[in-house]
Amino acid sequence: MAETKSPGSNRILIADDNVVIRQMISAVVKQEGFSVVTVSDGQEAYNILKDDADFRAAIFDMMMPRLGGIDVIRYMRGDDRLKKIPAMMITAEKDYQLMAQSFNAGATVFLPKPFTPAQLQITFRMLLAGKV
After folding, report:
1. Which pLDDT score, from 0 to 100, does residue 52 have?
2. What pTM, to 2 d.p., does this model score?
3. Please, what is the Cα angle at 85 between 79 and 89, to 5 degrees?
4. What is the pLDDT averaged over residues 5-19?
């Protein structure tokens, strides 16, 4: 059985199918003093979260192969071990109704692509300050 998230967790889970975006997010998160666990799709994120709830926050791309970010967040919000982990949703999709869908699923913050490292840094700080 997986441990519950420790209050002092220093790890951030990042799931995005675009390697360049994953690397940029990882660099910003590491610059903020956190360690990262990166995966290339939502199914991999789901598999990690089933067994490991020790994350300070999570960042998901909305559209990924096998399982999208919204589905992963819905899973997190339905699991007592994971529901308090703040989650950021990012997407290149231009349909702004997706923002509402993200928040309805339980996202803490939303960041549309393309974004700059500075925009990501600000939104990441908001994510950590957010209350779920």
Report:
1. 95
2. 0.90
3. 105
4. 82
Burial class (CB in 10 A: 0-12, 13-18, 19+), 77: middle
What are the tokens at 120? 């990501």
Cis geometry, peptide bond prior to residue 65 (ω within 30 degrees of 0): no
Phi-psi region of 52 (alpha: psi -120 to 50; beta: other; left: phi over 0): beta
Place of tokens 């003093």: 33
Per-residue CA distances from 110 to 11, 51, 81, 93 (Å): 20, 26, 22, 12
The residues, ordered by sequence, that sit 6+ positions from 24 with a Cβ below 8 Å of its Cβ are 117, 120
What's the rounded Cα separation, in Å, for the pair 123 and 110? 8
Tally Cβ neighbours within 10 Å of residue 30.
12
- Is the pLDDT assigned to residue 132 strictly greater than 60? no
Structural domains in the chain plus CATH codes: 11-129 (3.40.50.2300)
**At 128, is the secondary structure helix, strand, or coil?**
helix
- Which amino acid is residue 59, in one-letter code? I
Sheet containing 11-15: which strands, arranged edge to edge? Answer: 35-39, 11-15, 57-61, 87-91, 109-112
Q: How far apart are alpha carbons 39 and 87 in whole angstroms? A: 15
